[in-house]
User: Fold this.
Amino acid sequence: MSNAATDVVITGIGIVTSLGIGREAHEKLLTGTAPIKPVVDNSWEPHYAAHPLPEIDWSEQIPRRGDQRQMENWQRLGVFAAGLALDDAGLKDNEEACATMDLIVAAGGGERDISVDTLIVEESRKVNDREVMLNEKLMTELRPTLFLAQLSNLLAGNISIVHKVTGSSRTLMGEEGAGISAFETARARIAAGQSTHCLVGGALSAARADLLLMTESSGVADDRQGNAEDPSSVAPNGVVFGSAGAFLVLESRDHAEARGATIYATLDEVEGDRGSREEGKLEERLSRLADRVAADAGSVELVISGAAGEPVMAAREENWLKERFSAARLRRQAIAFGHGVEAQFPLAIALGAIAVSAGAPIARFSAEGEKEMPAAPKTALVTALGFQRGEGMARLSKAG
Amino acid sequence: MTSKFTDHLGRPIVAVTGMGVLTSLGEGVEENWKALTSGKSGIHTITRFSTEHLSTTIGGTVEFLDIPASNAVERSHAMARKAATEALAQAGISGDFDGPLFLAAPPVEPEWSARFELGDRVPEAAREGNAYTQFLSVLREKPDLAMHEAMLFGTISERLADDFGTRGLPVTLSTACASGATAIQLGVEAIRQGRTSRALAVATDGSVTAEALIRFSLLSALSRQNDRPEKASKPFTRDRDGFVIAEGAATLVLESLESAIARGAKVLGILAGCGEKADSFHRTRSSPDGSPAIATIRGALEDAGLDESGIGYINAHGTSTPENDKMEYLAMSGVFGDHLKSIPVSSNKSMIGHTLTAAGAIEAVFSLMTIATGTLPPTINYDNPDPAIELDTVPNVKRDQAVTSVLSNSFGFGGQNACLVMTAEPA
Assistant:
């Protein structure tokens, strides 16, 4: 492996999941000896489970109450994780570095006001002219701040306001593809010398009924009320959303070394693709991606699959992974952490970076269907497989 | 190594070889340019949905489309497909495009009509609990794939990728009202990286609904001058009171100059420079000193290898909000100083309204048309100039004036700023 000036390295990891807050907590989790035990909330909505937010003191990363009030949990979580990443990189209060730092956020839409929507739907059953009723209700019931809390690009906007990251600000959308494109774009820019340091990531606050419309409208939601008896070790039978905030600081090797930063991992390759998943076409596409991202399959010791949880696609990916990366140990992210949608791939990259830097074997994400690891991994492949479309892969290596 | 195919920093020069556009003024570059240079307004009273109780009842919505369902995804996709078809035909590219797709698209949500319909499907006995619990009880019984497609942010780019055979995972993006410019910037970057010789930059927005109008109204962003819709958008005037929401789409075929010349394509202009800088001041207001917008314009000039004297015309963001026009003037003054008086600055939004996600790309097409035709489109409704904004706005009537370089500004909520510099083909 070359140590080129434009190698893309990871120097800050900001991570929040249902299982904890911060890089150190997750390193401990990943290097434990027992399989990871997921935290699942079955009480928030009939039929559906979610991996909930952990208890968070937002003030630790969003000091001003006024800022907190301008956001709902999705944006708060993203801003919080972004702050953790900056802290971890030692750049939190470095005004000059933040003012020149690029920002790429993978975002969906924010929380709707469920009670207002419910009021309007109930009214719609009573009136003849629904459009007029709708206008009247929305004019009186909508909160001005909620629009900004729902706007996709306002997660990035809030990161700029709270953390003063202002080199540039780009929000990518499109479910899982947003997270893949965010890292593909950031890596390509740094490798080409178009950017020196970039904050990249996404967030999802999982316990949202409005979010379930997205998966249940195509029948891919897991409606079994989430493995209530033994949430550990049972693969989901569909998409179970998982709360996740994952942001990483990416830098050129030159930029990182010049400031004496701790390098956790190199982000060697990132690539995404999409297309038909019929009759082996998914597997063909995954093979093409792997040819470019990790041609030397034998060097990959750990694979973190970001398959969404839809069982047919997850099984096809798993079979393909086991054949292509037969020497690697597989860890299935959705079982332990749920599905993070836009944050799924950022979370996989964060976990991969922690895994290759931890210097210890990585715990099983499930007691069933995963093998223990003989030694600490130096190279990891992480994937994302969208519940509807989009596939992505990245290779990470231990900093050398 | 510099050559006639590389720029002042040795990077591949990025040419535009195809353009397509669609706005409330019509379909196609020719029809739009004719209307725009005639000072025609596309703004009208909205009839697509009821505007009763709304404080703003006008817009530049696109009503001449034939779409399978009335929702933002179908409308945005249909417009984007038309604009891309036009651009690719002009570029002389048929078959698979075989380059990346960068799409600026609006964040979408299920339409209210879809929520109502779903609500009707809930059996009487199940009409308890919140609306979403009720919706889910219906969807568990029978999925609704049309609704599914209409609420995923990735649907439009997925369809466009299939329509035109673009390569890899398409990028869907939103930088609010700067999105169109950002889509172009991503395409320029990809070509400069050398990972492709061509890129398709598409921007589309067909997301005008009652809820969208109300949301912007709650932020006091929209004009309420409903009585004469065509007169409501009046950038840089004393009586401007907000932007007029609108729809539209544009596509640019971006190509390395070397590749364009090699295949004998006609070069319509050069995408010479891009600038961006985020503002950390406020969610909807700009830094009072204009410094992020100033840095953005300077960044675009620097990227293009030009100084302040190098710009012949500015295609303004010019939304007609009290805040934007003041701030934009401040920023332009900060960069160009006294020289600003001699640079014509006009706002296409006086005629087409604010096409939100699509604006940056639509206005880039019109900027390139300005270079190609030597005609500056006017700022219409410039009847009562704001004395605090001293600009040559090309008032009310087009002007014949040859220009070889144009700056196009885009600024948006969330501290988004993006500027583009376009130039004529190098001699």
Observations:
- The two ends of chain B are 19 Å apart (CA to CA).
- Chain B has 13 helices and 15 strands.
- The longest strand of chain B covers residues 14-23.
- The first helix of chain B runs from residue 29 to 37.
